[in-house]
Amino acid sequence: MAEYTDMQLESLLSAAIDRSVPDLREEAASAPVSLLSAPDGIVSVQTSRRSSALRRTVMGLAACLVLMLGLSSFAFFRPLSVIGIDVNPSIELTANYFDKVLSVKPLNEDAVTIIGDMDLKYVNLDIAMNALVASMALHGYFESGQDVAVLVSVSSGSESHNLTLQKKLAVDIKAAASAVGAKASVYTQNIDKTSVAPPTPPASSSPGLTPPVTPSHTLSPAPETPSPVTPTRPATAQERAAQNGISYGKQVFIDKLLTLDPTLSESELAVMPIGKIASLVKQRGLDLSSIVDDDSDDSVKENIEDFIADLDTPDDDDDDGKENNDDKKGNNGNHNGWDEDDDEDDD
Q: pTM for the whole thing?
């Protein structure tokens, strides 16, 4: 057996190892490298600047979207306008910035019957007006060929939106009345929560006092007669409306009527339908051009044209004022705002 030196043995072992172990350097160098799914504390994970900027952009857009959704939700559910509809049924609606109905409140027994089981929440105001007028027609308040007086009272966030909403509601109510064969004489007013109470009617004069007389002899003291207690009249229109059981808008309207004619009876006006109040005012020859906007003489087409004209020039106060004066036909002295004897058939 041949003997090998140490150097020969090392050479033979090296050759055997090279044959048994493959060379993986080239294969390892060309293999793809995948990032760690989670840092292991040994190999550092580096992110590119582009991916970081993209992530920040996406997060910023998501935050803006959440903010916009929050603001939209706030605007949608926040009441902006309070609208009172008075015929004899008295109904109060609240609407948001988008003219969607948020709530409907009946203010008397007639209104409870009119609303019934209707769910008008979140519907458009024009749809709500059509539904209410149709229900009133079913209950005899809008009959074919009848002229029905409707008082629309609006309290809104701004003067321009208030006037636009008044005209829009007048158009909607007239169109709904025309659909059932009736005519609506719509009287609109801008109400606010700072309305001043009208002067209290003068109380009856107290009986004169007799000067004291010194008796010549002692008299028994006369029994005292209790003086009648006069009920205190509420100071605000809201309190008076609650006391009279009517809407806030109708109470403001009555307060304004009393400033024109203090001889009118507040309690009697409170129980009258708007149509009877209109007839009474007409009989007394009162000029209501400074109290309500009268659209009773305008046809549905004319009201729609006025409404569209107002939308075209929302910021032109001078033109709006001119159009409003043209709409108030009673302002020229030909007849007062409630005189409808010379009305032409709108149909």
A: 0.61
DSSP secondary structure letters along 139-195: TTSS-TT-EEEEEEEEE-SSHHHHHHHHHHHHHHHHHHHHHTT-EEEEEEEE--TTP
Q: List, in sequence order, every residue forming a beta bridge with 94; answer none if it has no partner.
A: 82, 103
Helix crossing, 274-284 with 248-260: angle to 10°?
10
| Antiparallel, parallel or unpaired: β 147-155 and 183-190 | parallel
The 10 Å Cβ neighbour count of residue 162 is 18
Tell me the per-residue pLDDT of 294-331, one tens digit each, with 9 for 90 and over. 766 554 455 455 545 554 554 444 444 444 444 444 44
19 burial type by CB count under 10 A (0-12 exposed, 13-18 middle, 19+ buried): exposed
Could you count the other beta carbons within 10 Å of the beta carbon of residue 170?
Answer: 29
pLDDT, tens digit, 9 for 90 and up, residues 194-220:
444 544 554 444 444 444 545 444 545
Neighbours of 74 (CB within 10 A): 11
State how far the alpha carbon of 240 is from the alpha carbons of 2, 91, 243, in Å.
130, 17, 5
- Dihedral of alpha carbons 298, 299, 305, 307, sign: positive
Judge whether residue 20 has pLDDT over 60.
yes
